[in-house]
Amino acid sequence: MMTREDVTAMILSAKRQAGLTWEGIAASIGMSPVWTHSAAMGMNAMPAEKAVAMVDALGLPQEAALVLQESPTKVWQQAVPTDPCIYRLYEIVGVYGPTIKALIHEKFGDGIMSAIDFDMSVTRVAHPKGDRVKVEMSGKYLAYNAW
Amino acid sequence: MMTREDVTAMILSAKRQAGLTWEGIAASIGMSPVWTHSAAMGMNAMPAEKAVAMVDALGLPQEAALVLQESPTKVWQQAVPTDPCIYRLYEIVGVYGPTIKALIHEKFGDGIMSAIDFDMSVTRVAHPKGDRVKVEMSGKYLAYNAW
Amino acid sequence: MMTREDVTAMILSAKRQAGLTWEGIAASIGMSPVWTHSAAMGMNAMPAEKAVAMVDALGLPQEAALVLQESPTKVWQQAVPTDPCIYRLYEIVGVYGPTIKALIHEKFGDGIMSAIDFDMSVTRVAHPKGDRVKVEMSGKYLAYNAW
Amino acid sequence: MMTREDVTAMILSAKRQAGLTWEGIAASIGMSPVWTHSAAMGMNAMPAEKAVAMVDALGLPQEAALVLQESPTKVWQQAVPTDPCIYRLYEIVGVYGPTIKALIHEKFGDGIMSAIDFDMSVTRVAHPKGDRVKVEMSGKYLAYNAW
Amino acid sequence: MMTREDVTAMILSAKRQAGLTWEGIAASIGMSPVWTHSAAMGMNAMPAEKAVAMVDALGLPQEAALVLQESPTKVWQQAVPTDPCIYRLYEIVGVYGPTIKALIHEKFGDGIMSAIDFDMSVTRVAHPKGDRVKVEMSGKYLAYNAW
Amino acid sequence: MMTREDVTAMILSAKRQAGLTWEGIAASIGMSPVWTHSAAMGMNAMPAEKAVAMVDALGLPQEAALVLQESPTKVWQQAVPTDPCIYRLYEIVGVYGPTIKALIHEKFGDGIMSAIDFDMSVTRVAHPKGDRVKVEMSGKYLAYNAW
Amino acid sequence: MMTREDVTAMILSAKRQAGLTWEGIAASIGMSPVWTHSAAMGMNAMPAEKAVAMVDALGLPQEAALVLQESPTKVWQQAVPTDPCIYRLYEIVGVYGPTIKALIHEKFGDGIMSAIDFDMSVTRVAHPKGDRVKVEMSGKYLAYNAW
Amino acid sequence: MMTREDVTAMILSAKRQAGLTWEGIAASIGMSPVWTHSAAMGMNAMPAEKAVAMVDALGLPQEAALVLQESPTKVWQQAVPTDPCIYRLYEIVGVYGPTIKALIHEKFGDGIMSAIDFDMSVTRVAHPKGDRVKVEMSGKYLAYNAW
Amino acid sequence: MMTREDVTAMILSAKRQAGLTWEGIAASIGMSPVWTHSAAMGMNAMPAEKAVAMVDALGLPQEAALVLQESPTKVWQQAVPTDPCIYRLYEIVGVYGPTIKALIHEKFGDGIMSAIDFDMSVTRVAHPKGDRVKVEMSGKYLAYNAW
Amino acid sequence: MMTREDVTAMILSAKRQAGLTWEGIAASIGMSPVWTHSAAMGMNAMPAEKAVAMVDALGLPQEAALVLQESPTKVWQQAVPTDPCIYRLYEIVGVYGPTIKALIHEKFGDGIMSAIDFDMSVTRVAHPKGDRVKVEMSGKYLAYNAW
């Protein structure tokens, strides 16, 4: 039975052999690079047409398109990860989490930013003192229910 | 000896009594709301002039301006926090951390986004299906050294 | 500065002295017992009119009504709790969590049950072999975004 | 020696190939979808006749019926799981656990809701602002012994 | 507001000053020593008449009788405790837990020994090679539900 | 090299194929069911004659008798286990551990119940409101040394 | 109510003010330095006559003698401690623990060295390349029971 | 590539087949039993001549002598181990660690007992009330540097 | 697909067979020993020309040069490691970390030493009382941003 | 009884009021800044003359000089700390620990760098692309004993 891990490995191998980029793969299926990489890693399910486009673009077996459409069980590191590039993101959320919460409450009321109805981009911004990484997140505001 | 915790408590109390907002306090010292809240919580050190402005704006004792300028020891929750509004941020970083890393490597090379030479904003974006929270982060790209 | 913990203690003390029940307090402010207890414990923010009703019903100081309206930071036990009554709930979620996920995916698609747009009730159901506790939860279905 | 894991894998594979649903499999053995999925995952033992019906319905080897009848060792995640759909259930139990306990004590006395003499259902409820997931749990009240 | 911790401290102090034993206190309220000590430590709720008897026997304030009747939140050490006398009990349960489970399944079927409808005794048994501690536990068998 | 795990698997397989019970196996080697199961699981070493009897009773290879005589390294779950049948034992020890300690000190002095010079039984006791599981433990009292 | 912690603090204070050593205190009550320090720290109970001698030697209040005779709950660091002097002991036990076990089994059979019927000494041994610390432990061999 | 684990397994297998003891193996290479077992387990590196003697004594392949000379990465259980024989050693170090530290400071000054320039023995001491295990450790005293 | 782990194993094997040292390998590719070992272990990415030189120097397959150029995910032990040689480094950082922070703040202002724009050396320094290990670290100072 | 924490607080307060630097305090007692700060924080014991000099330099009470001479129990963060300046040091040790170990073994043999017979410095090094922090550590090489 073909698993998510199998499909992720096929995608990485095909990408390396064909010398593709995530940017390029994303363009070929008409989605954003963040979402495309994330779905390839098994962290998001693909709509049928996108799964088929992915399989076609990378020359994967047809069965892979079915696997890409299944709801994944998202497993990520609860212990703060050690890789410096990923760690810095946790450091940012650790330091600024209560600040983001305070500002959401000030601007919206008692609620949260959804991590489900959510999108994100990563871009390179030129800067004279050294280029900068820009990360933009957008999530729907959800208000707590009272009953 | 006046501590950071004392100063944070004084700021919160003065803010509540005067009915101020973080947006308003930030404007009065000429800084962004994210940085202002964060420094008030003891997560960033204030330059002397901003510390003085803060103390004046909120009517705090002069000694508080000295405390606000000291380098804080930043302590944050390594265990994933339980508050839903903050938890969702960890969930986002957990799910999309490897994706951000892959795209930084694709766009810049082997390195990271700095969490030190860094800034952030939180804004409200109107949307017909429900307004959205927008979080923007910008950090200097730092390349690994080889020697 | 009056804190959430102060207000919770005042509520518990007033309830004990007046011999009230959660059912009764909830009725007096026109909300459900689950939500009322939860807000009293500092796990939910109260709309202004409900906070005022609470303060009136229990004879608390007026400042308590302001505290009850603030957005709480929800802190709960990540380590599985030891109290048998609460532990059994974790055991149920541990054993049946993947089952609930599978059925949500089967009935709705790739998404989750919201814990924010959410309500719950606890009732006693008579039964010849021993009465039963009935817990009912209802949360809005949220579909994952693709972009 | 055929293990529980082997049988779970056979069931998942047969279900995928035959295009079945949990709802359908449950109907074919005359049990509820929650219990059926849970037993298929190795979290509940099946009575002999249900195990045979399961094996027949999915075309599994006869030995699988014996395995499905054995008492499983139930292993679940003590660390709070990361999958958003399952995490929200822990969040609910974390936030509302003490509330459920307080209401059980108010309605029944000193005791607990059994997680052994227990049943549960998951249903879809149509709603104009977006359909809702309904989870209903029912467990026998057990009073503490004094001796 | 008098707390459980206050009442436990009063009991221990009264016991020490009066030179009482748990055996003696238990006899004076007509309950077993195990249950009596456990309720005194705040791990079990007392029926009204026993709480009154306890308060009378030890000369505690009347309010203590109310506290002793409340449903306690049972908090115990999830990390294996270090005291050698208590640790040995964990070692026994760790080594023999799967054995007890196997024998319960062999003698009763798929289910558990209740820790709620439960009683226990500790006795001293004379023995030529050194006296022995005897611990006897008895709990109602509870069968898993299928639905 | 035949390992303890190999021998445990052979015993479980032979038991299943021959339709034996632990009670029966124990009787055939002249030991108690608790000790027999525990030794079969690799938690106790067998005296030579019992190991030979075990191997004969179940038709295992002769080398298995040597393995059954070796001193095992006892590895058990320090994290509280999730299986409900085993968990309830930890709950009992967690709730009543300090009580057992207090009663041992009252009846014997400063010391412990040995978990090495120790034995245990599990029996079924008929009861009109539902049969009960009875667990009896007996361990030598060991007094602390002063020097 | 005088606690163990109070008595430990009194002993440390009296020792500092009188310029005593553990060696000297131990001699004055006729016990070893290891046991004396350990009992002073609340890790061992004192026989009545030793407790009285301790109280007399250090000029403590008479009530302290009662506290020193009570059975302590021994709480020690399960997380490996950070102090380098204590850490090295854990490192030794970590590295050589399986070796000590293997040699006990080779010399005695299946059993353990008791930590209850146990004594220990710490001495200074002169050595040309630098003096050495000598730690000697002696514990009764306890054989596992089979039943 | 032959690993340390391979060599440890070869040693254990050769020892079992030849019916050797650690005492005997140690004698044949002219080292102590503690050090010999520890090096065999991969917790110490062997000088070349000892490695060759070990390989000759047990009839191992010549490559094993090279592996036995390499500096091992010593990995041991930070979580307190569950095997009763090894656990008692942790209990001793947990209970008496601060005592050993206090006596080292009293006899030597501010420093530690080295775990590197270190040796240890395990012996059996006959005793009328039951033979005793004697563990002797000796480590060089190292004083903290001030600069 | 050749992985980092494969390449690390090839390097270690080639080094052992050719009797090379890290010092020597580093010289042959014109880099420092610290960086060379670290990149070989998969903790740093190699520039193309260095990767090719490494592959040539050790006779590895050409594909290995591609793997050595990829950005690694740096995974290291968050739990303090047990190997004494590595543990001492954690002990140093644990004891002196706050001191290094205080001196950086005194000499530079509010900021950190970069672990990305960073280099390190390890050298042997002769000393009459025993040779010493010298570790030198150099990292760019990064000042916190205020915005 | 004056504690280490009291003395540390007095030093920090005196330093702030007098506007001193660690560099300056260290010079006034004739020791290095690293050692001086560390001893002030309670991580090293001071020789008598240095303790007296410290007390004189900062105008502390004489009793503080006694406290500064006592052997401290060094407690530091085993969980990786969150402050970015200290965290980077753990990241360095995590990433390069195995490299330092490999190079010590290559240059010295099987042993470690002592963290007891140890010294360290922190300096600022001017650099055209941004000044750098230089950390130098020196520890005596200690060879493992074989016996």
UniProtKB/TrEMBL annotation, chains A, B, C, D, E, F, G, H, I, J:
SUPFAM superfamilies: Cyanase C-terminal domain, lambda repressor-like DNA-binding domains. InterPro entries: Cyanase, Cyanate_lyase_C, Cyanate_lyase_C_sf, CYNS_N, Lambda_DNA-bd_dom_sf. Keywords: Lyase. Residues 75-147 form the Cyanate lyase C-terminal domain. One of its GO terms (molecular function) is cyanate hydratase activity. It catalyses: cyanate + hydrogencarbonate + 3 H(+) = NH4(+) + 2 CO2. Its EC number is 4.2.1.104. Pfam families: Cyanate_lyase, CYNS_N. The keyword Lyase applies. Catalyzes the reaction of cyanate with bicarbonate to produce ammonia and carbon dioxide. HAMAP family: Cyanate_hydrat. Belongs to the cyanase family. This is Cyanate hydratase. It comes from Aquibium pacificus.
